[in-house]
Amino acid sequence: MYKEDHGTETHLDTTEARAGSRNKTNRNALAIGIVLVIIAFAVILGFGFLNTHHTGADKMSADNVADNEAAQ
Questions:
Q1: Whether the model pTM is above 0.85
Q2: Predicted confidence (pLDDT) per residue in 62-71, tens digit
Q3: Number of domains, the chain
């Protein structure tokens, strides 16, 4: 490595320019994380947790529509 104190010229080798080694840990962690998120979303959709009949929102919406129509 060559760094000049008074000027702006700096020479770094490849490892120093990358600020570390060339391992694949970060790439593997990112890929595994994305796969796990996709699997989690598939499970959520598969079991139907996103359906509104579990929360009563469909009945509430129907009641609101009926109330609005009766008020008009």
A1: no
A2: 788 877 777 7
A3: 1
